[in-house]
Structures are given as C-alpha cells and as structure tokens.
User: What shape does this take?
Amino acid sequence: MPEERRQTTAKLSDLKPVPENQHYPYVIVVLVDQNLKTMLGSTGYDGISGSMSMNSYLFSGLIACTLAAYIRNLGYNARAQHCANYQVTLPPAIISAGLGEMSRTGECALHPRLGFRHKAAAVTTDLPLLPDKPIDFGVAEFCSKCKKCAEHCPAGAISFDRDQKEFNGYYKWVNDMPKCTVFRTTNSEGSSCGRCMKVCPWNNKEQSWVHSVGTWAASRSGMAAKLLKDIDDMFGYGTEVVQEYRWWLEWPELYK
Amino acid sequence: MYSVLAFFFGAVAVLGVIRLLQFSKARDARLKWHVWVAVAAWYFWTVAGISFVIINVADKHFKAAGTGAFIFFMVTVLAGVLLARLTGIFNPFKSSGQQVDA
Assistant: This one.
C-alpha cells in the first residue's frame, strides 16, 4: 500500500465516532427527486427500480453530509442522517419539517409537488433554527378515496382501509411490511420495487395546469379524489410504460 | 412555445369577439349576455383541449393525448354547433329571402 494511502487510513481510524444525535433539537430535511422520466419508462419493479432509489439516496446523502460539514465548520454540532446511516426515522421528520403528509403506503410522506417520488436525508443539529410547521394539503382525504397504490401493489401489501388506524401511537394506514419486504428482496422481474410511487396520481405526470387542477380539486373533496383517480385510469397515467424513456438495459437472468 | 401559443389563442379570441360584434351589428340584434358567457366557455374548453393534447404529446403520454383529444373534440364540435345555432351564425332552416309567386 502506498505511504500516503496508509497515512489516510491511519488518520481515519483515529477519528472519534460522530456524536449521537438524540440531544440535537433541530432537524433539516432534504428531499431528492427520483427522476420522473426514468419512472415513466419503468414498470416500477423492473431492473431500474433499485437504482432509482439508490441514486436519489446517494445525492440526498451527499447534500446532507455537505450541509452537516458546513454547520460543523460554523462551530455547531451536526450529524448527517442518510441511507444506511440513519439514526432518526425520516417520515416524522419530513412531516414535522412541512415537506409532506403521510400517504396510504404508510411509510412514505407525500410532498405537494413531488408526491412521494423522492428519497430523503436529514441533518440533526444544535444550530439554532426557526422551525417550519407540518402542512395539511388534503392528502388524508385524497388517499382515503384513491387507493390506486393498493390496487397496483404487486405484493398486495398496501391497505385498502378507508380510514387510518392507530399504530404505535400514530394514526396511519398500516401496510403489510413483511409482504412488501419479501417482494422487494425476491422480485424475479427486477430489482426492488416502487410500483406504488409509479402509479400514484400525485406524482405520475409532469407539472402542468392539467395536473395542478386535478390535485387541487382532489385535495379538497373526496368525490373529486375518486374522480381524479378514475380520470387518471382512463387516461392511462401511472400504468403506462413510455418506451422512449427506457435508457437502461434489462437483465432478466440476473433476477431469477 | 407555450408563450407563442398563448399569444395566438389571445389573438384568435380578440378576432372572434370583433367578428361576433360585426355579425350582430349587421343583423341589428345584439347578442344577450348569456350567449357571450356560453361563447367564452366554449372557447375556454376548446383552448383547454388543445393545451391538454399538446402537453400530453410533448410528455409522451400518448394514451392520455388520444383519449383527451377524442373527448375534448367531441364536446367542442357538439357545443360549437349548438352555439352557432344560438348565435344565429349557423341556421340550416333559414329561408333564402326569395319568394316564389304562385
């Protein structure tokens, strides 16, 4: 091993562990889009699905680490919370930061414009900040009527219940996590799964007046939510696979 | 492109209003306010339909574009014929004005 490389390794091993975050009063949340066009070209559970997630995890982690380093340089404590290195549960942090509401999937917070086509990272810190507040833009009403993700979930893991239930002290739609996990890890048609994200009427198309009118109405009335879902189905949004956007090569033998 | 289209549809709207005013003046019968509202609604629907199709074609939602084109086009044509009858622009039963002497 070259000398300079050995020195770097030695220096890294001398580093003290990053302090635990439990006592940091603030959290800064980062969302990174998973890329609409790639999602439109995918079935939601083919070869690109896992990479879409991990690409966004990578960039959200990069942002979180950079931000945490910057805050530490200011003289405060900060810890980046990112994929494979979380010490906080992200959905409550996303909701508290006003970046979304809990969706029917039970584990994904839905952003007003991104839907849940995102991956999140965070920075916990003691840097004094002015906190945002949770937002309510009608997702509970919308998800209670739509149920499109539940209809299209290949594992049948998403609840069809109309109302949220109390789970561990929180009201949410409770999905069948083992079913979801088993499907994602044994998916013989691709890598992982994001079918619920792919079909969700909130994030399965580009931003335009068409989409804005639909989500605006659907977030205000249950009847409009049902209508939006039916119109979404009629126009083929969410379930279509746009061949022009398939930039990757499938490798079906890999998943068997 | 969308700015050019917005300008184009605005220009067509102005020309349409001028043409309707000239038409009603020539017939010496002013159009009622609810007819103007109906014409405006029809024009809005038509422009919305064209916009919907353009947006969906641009984003490669071809099923949405095709279905949308069918629905918007059908309603536009039917409502257009109805409006043309209402305003008097289109009247298939209008007499030619010539009288035939027995």
